[in-house]
């Protein structure tokens, strides 16, 4: 049984410690996707992060595997190693060129969404004026499908996400998003979006971030409650976990260079507060999650699907071109 965490964040710095990854592994996680950049990160920063993360993985082959296929993930689990890939949160590092998508795939990116909260040249963000995909965005969806990358709609506005899910030829996921019906935050998604995701064969992965769970001290029980709601709306085959834990390291400054305005990307009008930053589930949440999923009515087999089996199925379909 593979435990799959669809999205976590280390510092956006090439020297980031992988100690948090080791903590996830110790808690029973076999695979996770590490974020390597977003729309606010300029290309030199994204490339340095990818290079640094790849170097760290290569230097510890006894602990980590940079996966390209589902077979790599399963082999790593059998050998007691942690399988890793990368994800990109936004299309601005693609420089408006669909051919950049395949290059990122070669570098280890296996999951990608097009916007980080704000509109750009490709799609509309969840904290901006409603807008659908642009013509370039439609070409980008095709490029993601062709490159063997999982198409992700986290941080994406409702209109754009529905259009992406309508035209994608492969399953689409929300790697870290929760049901709006339970917690009314603009980053969460409607039942319409949940059902559209399931119609692609995709998965909604529950975030462990306090703002999105509606809990100041988020726990495995909170994650299970949101997972149960998605299962009720779309079926248990379309629920996963993407804890969205942001591991900070005080000695590293990963602030994007240049004129970076946090209030633009995380607007107060959308419910963000610098005075009250979010909290996250702990990596040890994974030790408790199976029991909590049983408490909300899932069988052992259904809990196993949520904790990894469903995302393993999506990766099998999306990563193989």
Can you give keywords for this protein?
alpha/beta; TIM Barrel; seven-stranded parallel sheet; two-stranded parallel ribbon; 9 strands; 40% helix
Structural description of this entry:
It holds the Pfam family Peptidase_M19. One of its GO terms (molecular function) is metallodipeptidase activity. InterPro entries: Metal_Hydrolase, Pept_M19. This is Peptidase M19. This protein has a single domain, classed as Metal-dependent hydrolases (TIM Barrel, Alpha-Beta Barrel), CATH 3.20.20. Helices cover 40% and strands 12% of the residues. The chain is built from twelve helices and nine strands. The strands form two sheets. Strands 1, 2, 3, 4, 5, 6 and 7 form a seven-stranded parallel β-sheet that branches. It has a two-stranded parallel ribbon with strand order 8-9. It has helices at residues 19-26, 43-59, 70-78, 99-107, 135-147, 158-167, 191-199, 210-213, 220-234, 262-265, 285-295, 300-318; strands spanning 4-8, 31-38, 64-66, 82-89, 109-113, 150-152, 172-173, 204-206, 239-241. The protein starts with a strand and ends with a helix. Helix 6 runs parallel beside helix 7, helix 9 (220-234) packs across helix 11 and helix 11 (285-295) packs across helix 12 (300-318). The chain has 321 residues and is of the alpha/beta class.
